[in-house]
Amino acid sequence: MIARRLFSSDRRIAVTIATLLAAAVIVPVLNLAVPADSVFHMPSYVVALVGKYLCYALLALALDLVWGYCGILSLGHGAFFALGGYAMGMYLMRQIGPRGVYSHPTLPDFMVFLNWKELPFTWWGFSSFPYAMLMVGLVPGILAFVFGWFAFRSRVTGVYLSIITQALTYALMLAFFRNDMGFGGNNGLTDFKDILGFNIQSQTTRAVLFSLSVLALMAGYLVARAIVTSKAGKILIAVRDAEARTRFLGYRVENYKLFVWTVSAVMAGIAGALYVPQVGIINPSEFSPANSIETIVWVAVGGRGTLVGAALGAGVVNFAKSWFTGAFPQGWLFALGGLFVFVTLFLPKGIVGTFTEWWRTRAAKREPPASAAAEQPAQ
Question: Which residues constitute the domain of residue 52?
Answer without folding.
Answer: 2-365
